[in-house]
Design goal:
The chain is an alpha/beta fold. It has two domains: about 260 residues, Glutaconate Coenzyme A-transferase (3-Layer(aba) Sandwich), CATH 3.40.1080; about 250 residues, 3-Layer(aba) Sandwich (Glutaconate Coenzyme A-transferase), CATH 3.40.1080.10. The protein is about 25% helix and about 25% strand. It contains 15 helices and 35 strands. A hairpin with an 8-residue loop joins strand 21 and strand 22. The chain is globular, with a radius of gyration of 24 Å. It starts with a strand and ends in an 11-residue tail after the last helix. The mean pLDDT is about 95.
């Protein structure tokens, strides 16, 4: 039966028993399911007693958001120079924590990264006592041992705590990925009963909470498991089907203050996120459309989705990444075609309106929420029709780098796993980076001042999507910017469309480090994109059966 730690002093006494050098697995997709209270008390224990120290932290994504969770801890480490707390990290996403990135870039700690789905599946393999995860995700990319093997710094390359091996099975390339088994698990739920059974009714996602608990409890050396909850209930008052973690798998339960149980980085609690309330769609028929470079990209990507619906002659399953992609469901809703798209977010929600920024990972009004590992099983297995993702760099071969540059290591997030399984991919982003001044007026694009940084380069800094693999697997790949649209052809990048008001040579070709292929004169992008009225996509897909019951 789980032991309840009702005071900070109780928690500190148990945390002092954690051996130095332990591997600690912590749940968290941003602040969602992040056991922030446990993490902060663990660090406080180190500050007070000097132990536990030299911890290696593993996570399914990133257990925190700006100024909270792991970012708060790492900021304190930097300010106070308490570098002995951490030995290293294995995390798919570091983007919300500049302090954590700095620790890795300064070689203070070992830094490793994997795709979110790969990490979740690896923890499941560890739970089953298997030697590692065999996967095709990441072959020929930054995650491949023939490149960086998922290491983020020289210290990680030297120590090699996380290993990636290449192997061939039935004539196809795979990676065998291994990482240390967790000695300790820190996870979060909503309610614990007197046995320690954990339910998650107020959480916006399930994340990888159960899988992390399994991994720590796997033999032969069963680890310690801690769960942070908001409240305690009598035994028998939680419906057995609502129990997400059985009590015998939890050693210690800590009741946290409400301030550490927020659903997202900026939302304390909204019942629409956790399924307590399903809101009406409430289509916005008359809102004024403010046009800029980002909205042009979002609208052109929405057209690509409408084309997919029309081509499939049915509703489609789609994934939306962080940044510009996460804004596209709002366009679909305003165009009244959201009923034709089952939107999914990698953390587990299906349907509803995905949130953006440091709230990314949850949705308003989803019709289903599944565990994160299962979501990525569907992605990698090709069960989605289309994915909308961002890009940072693209080269002539169609290789894509979404996140890593010298001095900047946000990590891959779910990008490698999603692109591996998706048959159709739309990469979205502004044509240049820096501080461009691009205006949309009178039905045209006006480039007053271009960005200083070129994004279409001779060679991407790190490869996370390999164009050659996309071509071999016959993926339909589109690159959408505010001034041009490209396709991945059989021999690389092909320019297919340009925006009205844009000069082909001055604004496109001279701003690229390679010359894209052009099988014919590029077409003009749909003129309606650049006008402040609706695109009329609902009429485009009329006659196709919507999501829901068959009529």
């Amino acid at each position: 039966m789980a032991k309840f730690l009702l005071t900070e002093n109780d928690l500190t006494k148990v945390f002092r028993k954690i051996p130095d050098g332990s591997v600690v697995a912590i749940s968290g997709f941003n602040i969602s399911t992040a056991p922030e209270y446990l993490l902060l008390r663990l660090y406080d224990t180190f500050l007070k007693y000097g132990h536990p120290r030299h911890l290696f932290i593993e996570s399914d994504s990133l257990p925190g958001s700006p100024g909270r969770g792991i970012d708060k801890v790492c900021s304190q480490i930097e300010e106070e120079k308490h570098y002995n707390f951490l030995k290293g990290i294995l995390m798919p996403f570091l983007g919300w924590s500049p302090a954590l990135q700095k620790l890795v870039l300064d070689e203070r700690i070992e830094g490793y990264t994997l795709s979110i789905g790969t990490m979740a599946h690896l923890l499941r393999e560890i739970s089953a006592g298997r030697p590692g995860l065999i996967t095709k995700v990441g072959v020929g990319t930054f995650l491949d041992s023939r490149q960086d093997g998922g290491t983020l710094n020289e210290l990680a390359r030297k120590v090699g705590r996380v290993s990636v091996e290449n192997m061939v099975i039935h004539g196809k390339d795979y990676l065998l990925i291994s990482a240390p088994k967790p000695d300790v698990a820190l996870v979060r739920g909503t309610t614990a009963d007197e046995m320690g059974n954990i339910s998650m009714e107020k959480e916006g996602i399930y994340g990888t909470v159960f899988t992390i608990t399994q991994a720590a409890k796997a033999g032969p050396d069963r680890g310690m498991t801690f769960c942070q909850v908001e409240r305690v209930a009598r035994l028998g008052t939680i419906n057995p089907k609502a129990v997400h973690i059985p009590g015998p798998l939890i050693d210690y339960v800590a009741v946290s203050p409400a301030e550490y149980a927020w659903q997202t980085g900026s939302i304390e609690f909204d019942p629409r996120i956790s399924g307590g309330l399903i809101p009406p769609l409430g289509h916005k028929h008359h809102e004024k459309i403010e046009l800029d470079a980002r909205t042009v990209i979002e609208r052109r990507a929405a057209i690509e989705m409408a084309k997919t619906v029309k081509e499939k002659k049915r509703s489609i399953i789609a994934n939306f990444g962080v940044g510009i992609p996460s804004e596209i469901p709002s366009v679909l809703e305003s165009e009244r075609i959201s009923d034709y798209v089952y939107s999914t977010v990698e953390a587990g929600p299906w349907g509803g309106l995905p949130l953006t920024g440091n709230d990314f990972g949850v949705s308003i009004g989803p019709f289903a929420i599944i565990p994160l590992p299962d979501q990525f099983t569907l992605y990698e297995g090709g069960m989605i029709d289309i994915s909308i993702l961002g890009f940072m760099q693209v080269d002539a071969e169609g290789n894509v780098n979404p996140s890593i540059l010298p001095g900047r290591i946000p990590g891959p997030g779910g990008f490698p796993a999603i692109t591996s399984g998706s048959p159709s991919i739309v990469f979205t982003g502004q044509f240049s980076a820096g501080k461009p001044d691009i205006r949309v007026q009178d039905g045209k694009v006006s480039i007053v001042h271009d960005g200083e940084t070129t994004k279409f380069v001779k060679e991407v800094y790190k490869i996370f999507f390999r164009g050659e693999v996309g071509i071999k697997e016959k993926k339909d790949v589109t690159f959408v910017t505010e001034r041009a649209v490209f396709k991945l052809g059989s021999h690389g990048i092909v320019l297919t469309e340009i925006a009205p008001g844009v000069d082909l040579d001055r604004d496109i070709l001279e701003r690229m480090e390679f010359k894209p292929k052009m099988s014919s004169e590029p077409q003009a992008m749909d003129h309606a994109i650049f006008l402040p009225e609706k695109l009329g996509l609902s009429s485009y897909v009329s006659g196709i059966r919507k999501a829901g019951f068959e009529e």
